[in-house]
């Protein structure tokens, strides 16, 4: 039997029947609904909001959360496969789902009250309420402990002042999960659209994640009732726990981007004739594409094991850092190499590698830069914190 070019080690055979069904469903959605429009959306700098309802109908929002909240109750590997197939379409689509699921719905589920869960999660799963996650600030995203946004208690309310930056879904959002310094440590608040003093401003002139909404958030004496405070966590472990969930999805997503780039490059190099033969018939092209397949295969094996560890409840943040570092670096290198193999045609968004390469500049940066994740692994090896 011939090997599948994007699954040389038959990683799919390691998946359960349900996991394969999830992957096939999301792959079909990406092929039929995302790929036909995403190039134009990227060119226009437009997030395709028309897809949100369909994404929700497929159960992709908060997919790992319990069914009692209107969610699909899928396992971690299934969530990873969702991220992989969506990012095969575009990082912006996967980012939308990651933020809604891991950075907004997860903290409400993990740190919120039952009343908060019942109020927000079913509508968020249905795509009726969109969330954003307010942690990063203008002066430095890699050091969240140096947070300047503050929340001060005033009777039964909290008054929030400060700002957040590089916030995915910011101008789409109906609620923002905002982390702020209080006298009792960092706490999370549900800030609702329309609250006086709360404003979102979309960040323009992006050359990456153009099919995604990225915003700055501003809080000028925003009064939030204590009922909107997440009661079950204090300190950095709250936002860092959310980031671990989101980073897990990001370890899978770039594999989809890399597969998309290799797929298009294989087809193009077979058709492109130079010096009397196809580019695919040259040793240099075959060596480059073989190297891509090798790295994709290693990344696939890495995330399946990571997913199994997560489902077993034994996954460690350092393991997530290693996988994000490896898989983002793998994908961005492959996207750049594919752009090169496409020659002049590779600089247009009629082909996906340049779009994926540009998007991956953000993916390799957000949720912890490559350097941060290298230092996390270094700390695990040496026991010495070099931050």
Automatic annotation (TrEMBL):
Gene3D superfamilies on file: Acyl-CoA dehydrogenase/oxidase, N-terminal domain, Butyryl-CoA Dehydrogenase, subunit A, domain 2, Butyryl-CoA Dehydrogenase, subunit A, domain 3
Record key words, sorted: FAD, Flavoprotein, Oxidoreductase, Transit peptide
Residue stretches making up the Acyl-CoA oxidase/dehydrogenase middle domain: 132-222
Record-level Gene Ontology MF annotations: fatty-acyl-CoA binding; flavin adenine dinucleotide binding; glutaryl-CoA dehydrogenase activity
GO BP terms, alphabetized: fatty acid beta-oxidation using acyl-CoA dehydrogenase; fatty-acyl-CoA biosynthetic process
Domain Acyl-CoA dehydrogenase/oxidase N-terminal: 16-128
Annotated EC: 1.3.8.6
Residues in Acyl-CoA dehydrogenase/oxidase C-terminal domain copies: 235-381
Pfam (any one): Acyl-CoA_dh_1
Family per similarity comment: Belongs to the acyl-CoA dehydrogenase family.
Cited PANTHER family: GLUTARYL-COA DEHYDROGENASE, MITOCHONDRIAL
Protein name as it appears in the record: glutaryl-CoA dehydrogenase (ETF)
Lineage: Bacteria, Pseudomonadati, Pseudomonadota, Gammaproteobacteria, Lysobacterales
Gene that this polypeptide is encoded by: gcdH
């Amino acid at each position: 039997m011939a090997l599948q070019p994007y699954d040389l080690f038959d990683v799919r055979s390691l998946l359960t029947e349900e996991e394969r069904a999830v992957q096939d469903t999301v792959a079909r959605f990406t092929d039929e609904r995302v790929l036909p429009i995403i190039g134009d959306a990227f060119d226009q700098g437009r997030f395709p909001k028309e897809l949100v309802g369909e994404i929700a109908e497929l159960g992709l929002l908060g997919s790992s959360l319990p069914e009692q909240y209107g969610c699909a109750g899928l396992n971690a590997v299934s969530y990873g496969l969702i991220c992989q197939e969506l990012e095969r379409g575009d990082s912006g689509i996967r980012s939308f789902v990651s933020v809604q699921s891991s950075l907004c719905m997860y903290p409400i589920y993990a740190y919120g009250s039952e009343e908060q869960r019942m109020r927000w999660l079913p509508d968020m799963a249905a795509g009726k309420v969109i969330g954003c996650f307010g942690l990063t600030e203008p002066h430095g995203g890699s050091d969240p402990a140096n947070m300047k946004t503050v929340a001060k208690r005033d009777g039964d309310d909290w008054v929030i002042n400060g700002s957040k930056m590089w916030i995915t879904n910011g101008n789409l959002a109906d609620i923002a999960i905002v982390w702020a310094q209080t006298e009792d440590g960092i706490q999370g608040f549900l800030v609702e659209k329309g609250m006086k003093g709360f404003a979102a401003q979309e960040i323009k002139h992006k050359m990456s994640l153009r099919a995604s909404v990225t915003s700055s958030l501003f809080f000028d004496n925003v009064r939030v009732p204590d009922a909107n405070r997440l009661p079950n966590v204090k300190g950095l472990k709250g936002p860092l726990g959310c980031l671990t969930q989101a980073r897990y999805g990001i370890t899978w997503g770039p594999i989809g981007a890399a597969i998309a780039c290799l797929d298009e490059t294989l087809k193009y190099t077979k058709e492109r004739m130079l010096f009397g033969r196809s580019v695919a018939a040259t040793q240099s092209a075959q060596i480059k594409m073989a190297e891509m397949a090798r790295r994709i295969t290693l990344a696939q094996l890495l995330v399946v094991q990571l997913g199994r560890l997560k489902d077993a409840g034994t996954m460690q943040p350092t393991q997530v850092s290693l996988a994000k570092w490896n898989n983002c670096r793998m994908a961005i290198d492959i996207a750049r190499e594919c752009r090169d193999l496409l020659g002049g045609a590779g600089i247009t968004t009629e082909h996906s590698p340049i779009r994926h390469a540009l998007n991956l500049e953000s993916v390799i940066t957000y949720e912890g830069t490559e350097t941060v994740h290298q230092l996390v692994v270094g700390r695990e090896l040496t026991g010495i914190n070099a931050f």
